[in-house]
Amino acid sequence: MITDIRPAPAPAAGPVSGPGRRRRVRPGRLGLHAFLMTVSLAFLAPLLLAVYASLRPYEETAKYGYFSFPRHLSFDYYRQAFTDSGMGKYFLNSILIAVPGVLLTLFLASFVAFSVTRLKMRGGLVLLMVFTAGNLLPQQVIVTPLYVLFTKIELPYWMSDSMTMYDSYWAVIAVQVAFQVGFCVFVLANFMRTLPIEIIEAAVVDGAGVWTRYWRVTLPLCRPALAALGTLQFTWMYNDFLWALVFISDGDKLPVTSALNNLRGQFFTDYNLLAAGSVLVALPTVLVFLLLQRHFIAGLTLGANKG
Amino acid sequence: MAQSSSGHRISRRTLLRGTAIGAGAVTLPAVLTACGGPGNEVKMGSNASDAVPRKAFAEVFAAYEKKSDKKVKVNTVNHEAFQEGINRYLKGTPDDVFMWFAGYRMQFFAEQGQLAEIGDLWKGFSGFSDALKKQSTGKDGKQYFVPYYYYPWAVFYRKSVFEQHGYEIPKTFDAFRALAKRMDKDGLDAIAFGDKDGWPAMGTFDYLNMRANGYDFHVSLMGGKESWTDPRVKHVFDLWRGLMPYHQQGANGRTWQEAAQSLAQKKSGMAVFGLPHPGQQFAAADREDLDFFPFPEIDSAYGQDAVEAPIDGFLLAKKSKRQKEGKELLKYLATPAAEEIYLKRDPNNIACNDKASASSYNALQKKAVELVSGAKQISQFMDRDTRPDFASQVMIRAIQQFINKPDDIDTLTKDIESQKKTIFADS
Amino acid sequence: MPLTTARRAKRRGPRRFTSRDLAVIGVLLGIPVLLDLALVWGPTLASIGLSFTSWDGIGDLHWVGFDNYRNLFTEYPPFWPAVRNNLLWVAFLGCVATPFGLLLAVLLDKGVRFSRFYQSTLYMPVVLSLAIVGFIAQLIFSRDQGALNAILGDKSHPVDWIGDPDLNIWMVLLAAAWRHTGYVMILYLAGLKSVDPSLKEAAAIDGASETQSFFRVVLPTLRPVNVIVGVITVIEALRAFDIVYAINHGRNGLELLSVLVTDNILGEASRIGFGSAIAVVLLTVSLGFIVTYLVQELRGEKKG
Questions:
Q1: Which residue among B8, B34, B281 places its CB closest to the CB of A223?
Q2: ipTM for this model
Q3: I need a surface site. Which of A136, A252, B219, C39 has the fewest CB within 10 A?
Q4: What beta strand segments (E) does chain C contain?
């Protein structure tokens, strides 16, 4: 039986010297820290190199190479990246696409996963396979049929100034959601399979309808999975450049990833400027990660879930 | 009993409220633009996404607005993205006038009926050479394109390096090869070479082909009308193979920027580049030292007649509902004044209209004008002279393969020919 | 039928849905199904159909039967290298990156002191966008100016990490593993949080060492997460696109099926039929992997 109960913060891995306190540093622990620290630094090193490059002028790195001592450090590129590419407006566009996209995706996918695993439905497994298999193709494949489809769907002017679904945010959000729902259904279904059935059965006995069973009973138990998925989905939808590129032709509506492309010249790309721009662009995803992190971090959970 | 969860309470109400705000935020901009209305305006599709050209064009359009009392609404899309999406762009809702290139790449879309012909405008144009007019004409003999600026490809070098070692500008291919050998002995990389992006090496191929086999053969080869297994083509690869030992090694992993930087750092002697390429990689103080010479002659029958000079300009979309306004804008853009305003800000190109004043040009630009005006034929560069998928799918790979294995010419040309047949069969 | 419910529900009492329930299910299930069918499956099936045609996106559709496939297998030089690279990718991610992600998740799950810092740094590569990944690859692997060659220090014969078609795929796989590890780690962390610690305590009391308790107790209960991660690894490997595209557009040893699809479908002179044929090959390979894996898992579940 698997339950989401964590009565104590420390896992059962060796002697614990008191609740939450570690005064004695064991050699095993030290080795663990050393290993994790090495791996972390190795993972960070390329990023740090890129950030380092973003602080140096292009002339300097062209002359001395990227892996050299600095003669001139400044944040100029960050300012320039923000203004030159018009990042402010593109950030807004990205948020307009990513936030509704993530919320809709998680909401719909969790319900489908719930129906497939917890409601006795015929064809649940088939549905699961349909959703999963739909996610197998690379995005580029379905671009053309979708493009043709969207140019034919007409929308009233208040929804899209191009009068069709093409060149509107609706197209991008719809495609993002449709494309990611399959993946999320698959992940959430597998998580939900591990949840104890008794809780839901108890809710049924209490007369709870489908919505209550879903919203009040099942969903809170999926918090780690939802948080992990939320982070990943936000990262993907925010970083995606393909759907927006294909379905939006008005330069002003493009998301921030395209703003990054604007920093890239036809003939001359100032890579240090591009690095600064990339760091700026990456900030929201980092923020989302830091916010949601506590939901799947090892250690204390806020409040106990008793079954 | 039901679970109580702390920290995960998004009430239904907040969720609905959030979605409503989101939906409102999406539709609001659409409503606002609706209130603006079209009026007396022309839409311009621009691929000039980087800072310098974008600002320069902004000035040109501002000048037009002042002169004509109409508005120009510029839709800027990233350079590469614009090119990649051109198919969808033209089929969907293209802007009235948009930036594009001359040559096959333009004729391709003219053939598909996406472009409006502007022969009537051309009758009123003056200052464009015949070579330029030829590049602006579609396969049906009608004009579609308004040229704006172009830049030549040539062999670049640093004057100080040549002075230091006593090198002389080579006029023939043999002299070129001998010079490369000398540079090699002097410890330099004779020819800087970076083909990671696939297109830089095309310049060298184009020039070798035009010098050895003539401009007409080159155009016909690019148009898919000649066989790549023709001994003339193999001869070109052979000549190149003879030069390969003097090119920088590892070209497939090197960007052209790195190649240009090696020129700036005096580690290499020469490089085949277009006018805009090397300058940015030089420190501002060193740019004076940069110079170029035309690609040397191989066959005296063809001399140094042909110059590779890609032309950028404007097209009028057939689907546009503002043909008249579009044509007015095009007429303005063809004037020398319009070109001068742009080139004051952008030092990397030269004007197409020979009446445009060269007073704001730097030394390199002035030399470029001489080079191009003396050219008997102008080619556009491989990726504009042939089908774009042939250039990117087949030729880039083929050239990179050649760089890896310069000896295997027969297999290479056979592969290119068979792929060419598949691709050009579609056209 | 969901198997767990079938197994666990000892009583199969009449379970009626109220009309309100049905409405909720109808809407909330209907919308995603509709979206999925209309925007994913519909176009997928259309693409399969398109793979038998020759179309440039503007003109007319010509039916060409299996010509595209024949060209693909015999006349398209980048195809077989792309297949090889994709399969290499699956093997590398499956055997190196995913187990490493699992290891890191397990280590972090112990609740070490700086785990928040470790998690964040390990996840950072996942948030990077395409533009900067290409730049970072150049920073490190460039033959003339890269960090790796600067460290190795051989100025006369620098290794051409990106330009050498035999070497570059391995460098790219390293970069892919760099991103994949954090991704897998996150999923395993979420999964490990759901594991009942009393299980591990019981095993410890019974005298099992940590490794034993991990492999015998924790890993089996992580089975659903393993299914997820396994499928994800294969999908990501077969759909790999970003890194290779950012580095050199997928040429000279870095060919991948998804890049070939992009080149043919999203270019200027689009060969949509041909590109769709490549996509169908990709789909078939993916389906082959996934279906085999899932069938195995489900069969295993039924027994166990």
A1: B8
A2: 0.79
A3: A252
A4: 53-54, 62-63
